[in-house]
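Quick question, first post here. What does this chain look like in 3D?
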Amino acid sequence: IGDFENPYLTLQPTFEAAQIGVFGEMFKRGYIFRGRKPVHWSPSSRTALAEAELEYPEGHVSKSIYVAFEVEEPSEKLTPFHGERSDDRLKVAVWTTTPWTMPANLAVAVNPDLEYSVVDHEKTGRLLVATDLAENLASKFNLPEGETFTILATMPGSDVVGTTYNHPLYPRTSPVLAGGDYITTESGTGLVHTAPGHGQEDYLTGLKHGLDLLSPVNDAGQFTKEAGEMFEGMSVLGEGNTAVVDALAETGSLLLAEDYGHKYPYDWRTKKPTIFRATDQWFASVEGFRDEALDAVDTVRWVPDVGKNRIRAFVTGRGDWCISRQRSWGVPIPVFYDKETGNEVLLDEHTLEHIQTLFAEHGSNCWWTMDEKDLLPEMYKNEADKWKKGTDTMDVWFDSGSSWAGVAKGRSELAYPADIYLEGSDQHRGWFQSSLLTSVAAQGKAPYKTVLTHGFVLDEKGFKMSKSLGNVVDPLKVIEGGNNKKAEPAYGADVLRLWVASVDYSGDVCIGQNIIKQTFESYRKLRNTARYLIGNLADYVPPGKDGSNSVPYDELPSMDKWMLGRLSAVLKDVNSAMDDYQFNRATQELLRFASADLSNFYLDVAKDRLYISAVNDPRRRSCQTVLHACLEGFAKSIAPVLPHMAEDIWQNLPYDKSTESVFEGGFPADLLEYPECDAEKWSFVRDLRDDVNKILETARNDKLVGASLESAAFIYTSDENKLKMMKEMESDENLVHPPVKTNGVDDLRTALLISQVNLVDSPEDITSSCEEAYISVGENSGCEIGISKAKGHKCGRCWFYDEQVGKDGKDLCQRCDKAILAWEKETGNKFGVPEPENAAAEPVS
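> Answer (accepted):
Ran it through. Tokens below.
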């Protein structure tokens, strides 16, 4: 149902212009600003990255170091433990997994509420560490066996604030200051090395205390001259990191260096490590509309429900969104900079409107091909020599996050907000979030009414698919088959669609050859059910058509009304599940209906009515009436999942259709309106049937009987309600037409497919008629049931056993004889019945 002739592409001029419109609206509302702060930076791509552009591969190992900074001026509480001599001075111990950030250290942060201790040992000297970590650090620093730190004093973190220390590599004195809750005793020393130019918490702490923003690293991830001649030009992720560790060791300030395995951010494109680095970037201030975004989350339907918690968590924890990138491709940020200062910016509603118009006409590439004079609006053209166009481009998440403007809001045939956004569960931090933020910031509402997320497809063993592993399942091969059609048959698109609809997409799902085979079996079950229904409607004329032989609802037997009630209940459940996007529930309900309700019970029982009854016998026509409803309801309900099968069914309906295609005319409302009928009775009958079949299986295994029609059942119950239901369905002693006790449909003989059903007054009546091995109390029905061989002869037509068969020289029961006579009368033909081989044989006892 996609518009393949007119698809939306993010590189289309109209889309790019709409994106500039979103940016402009956010700017006018005060949410766009330029600032210098640390961001994820990819040295391999030489650009800033958003969180959604990062990945955290397993197995990353960093070089972590413990460093001692010598105190210059202790706080009042620390003064007694700080000597004048160099070998008697107190040191503050810090830990980091990024040694290359040491040149940018401007402070040490403590948690004012944590407890800190001054510890001492001749191997390390006096150190200030978190009390809870002292024992662990003594072990890490390899103190002599049996020895530990001597604790000289303990105090809260607030008492150490105000201390200053000297940087071991530079002539720089820095403060010990109060940090935040991010400082814990889970690892490290409890004192945090703080480099505001290389970490988010460090930046916020530095902002609070007025620290400089030092970041001596260039775009390529190399130390600049600010880091000193000894490090300049070195890669911070390579030799520069090692050089810093070595330099600290030379000064005697390195307490320990060790490998440390942890999650570390990598560039999702280059698959190489990133760094945190302070640069001049453009940001969207999420704080300015965070509450509004969280309110918008509550207006959206999230499928599954857990999606709401995920998106709320991401929005709540979202800092300023860095929307600028240093790439040679992408939609440019339409900003002009003063050529002389590089700091003054030209960006207002006039420039935005002009650029948006240019992009709509020429596409964003005009930013690179036109000079400033053409890019500036008329009012600024005479200043063109003053301004230089910027080279930053927008974050790709801003691109995709603007799709509501470029597509849903920009096309007359679509609607904004969109009915549904559909993507993988990883997009709560990606497209779902960027779309929400841009829409709320620019329009004040969510861009979607519903968001549905799904897991990922794994191989049959639950492993991620990979070309190197050779476990990739090609959807086209499932549909069209492989080169060897015997080994890799062509299953068609419907089988693949059925697999998709039958799995729980809210989590990761598995697929493979065996799973597809199982799905194909389910597909065949549905198809064979449809074939059976079609095959038994050849002479049926639906209601409303000339010559209709449909039976009105009020004239239907109880079993048929019950079946139509089940049909409506199932279709309602399927519709409800589809509306809730629970396709696996809808599919399983259809499969269960086709298997349990239709094939295993109703259609099994219906064979006697369809094949044995006279052509126009009411019990046959009433059954066809039900089959017609089931077939159309079945075709309509599977159409969204199995469109080819549904259309195949529709094109092979053996009567005049109301529409040419199954996809026309909507869903027949009357199929949803049949009421529940005698549900308790038919539930009991099915339970009784299951119990009878279980005993029959034992009798078959012992060669007592073959087919179920060779059997007679003896049933006893003390439950008055169950007895009443069975009495209402008690069969005539012999097969007669028309039946006397029942209507021939709501009949125990027919429902149980047993030649004789005897309702007895006591358990003793069963034991006197049946062998002990074939007597049991049913687990489902609670009735005591016995099985024995049926009495009489087998009817050559319906195969039921009846004591009247053979008495008139024919191998037919009276019911079948009447059916044949009716056929002969209607057609004018004579039906030849072969003489039974044992017409005079004794009845079966």
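The first helix runs from residue 13 to 28.
Confidence is low (pLDDT under 50) at residues 839-845.
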